[in-house]
Amino acid sequence: MKALVYGGPGSRSWTEIPDPVIRDPRDAVIRVDAVTICGTDLHILGGDVPAVEPGRVLGHEAVGTVVEVGSGVAGLAPGDRVLASCISACGICRYCRDGAYGQCLGGGGWILGHRVDGVQAELARIPFADLSTYKLPDQVSDEAAVLLADILPTSYEVGVLNGGVRPGDTVAIVGAGPIGLAAVLTARLYSPAHVIVIDKAESRLQAAKLFGADITVLAGTEDPLAAVRSVTGGLGADVVIEAVGTPQTFELCATLVRAGGHLANVGVHGKPVTLHLEDLWIRNVTITTGLVDTYSTPKLLDMLVAGQLDLGHMVTHRFGIGDFMQAYDVFADPARTGALKVVLSR
């Protein structure tokens, strides 16, 4: 089969590798029908995730058809159409029993495209398949479902839920990439008074308006702090969601949050960040970080089926399953291409 293989920082190739096989009784092998590229994959290519070794197949977001199941897999059979979660769960360790699947001690957590070969391939092995896949109803398209593999649960759990968004809040979101836009969409489920989105690309701010942002700020041209204070009586945002992963954006978030507010970091950081405790300690600010656990995926899938989540504006570019090199070029240059989420499918 062919797969997108990481060759070290800055290096990737669509190349022939051996087909995956069942290695553990709880494995399944799927034919990848739809797959996407994550900002985390760009961080890997940038050298920000040194645990990823050269030779690794990238990718952790896919919809596929089950080809083979191990003897220990219950509830799945060849031919089933499934969502492959970005997080694998052993189901029996301390963290899995608490629903914190991202911290799995039994060989799971974020492993696809990280510590084991991922899903940017024609075929993929899915560990702990009975707990790490979700059967898909016929009315949910591959394109919509693949967005529930990572970006929707990540934004919802690590941004909106960890941030404690409540009705009437002012929510500021720094970064209008796919994660930031998914945060806009899921924050709106809690009826905030304002959703303010800050980004340096006008095209992404226009997308944020489509997803429900009522105020947008063009970074570098407009003043984010003034915009937030103008609708909060000078206090600052109740919840600030960091959805980029750079020192500059994190420090901006720390200036936007009100006393007693919450800064929820979602972005993947590859460089140290200065934490200005000399300013924050006295202001009762809560800061949370997190890797998604995907405990919310079934609920998000139910909302998608019920028509409560409109993902129609998220995918901007579509490619065939063999067009990964072009798809990466488009996704990595959103200022030029206007890319939000790219999907590759059969």
From TrEMBL:
Family annotation (SUPFAM superfamilies): GroES-like (SSF50129), NAD(P)-binding Rossmann-fold domains (SSF51735)
Protein family (similarity comment): Belongs to the zinc-containing alcohol dehydrogenase family.
Lineage: Bacteria, Bacillati, Actinomycetota, Actinomycetes, Micromonosporales
Name of protein: Zinc-dependent alcohol dehydrogenase family protein
Record-linked SMART domains: PKS_ER
Entry keyword Zinc: yes
Keywords: Metal-binding, Oxidoreductase, Zinc
Keyword Metal-binding among record annotations: yes
Domain Enoyl reductase (ER): 7-344
Annotated transmembrane regions: none
InterPro entries reported in the protein's UniProt record: ADH-like_C, ADH-like_N, ADH_Zn_CS, ER, GroES-like_sf, NAD(P)-bd_dom_sf
Cofactors that this protein relies on: Zn(2+)
Annotated Pfam families: ADH_N (PF08240), ADH_zinc_N (PF00107)
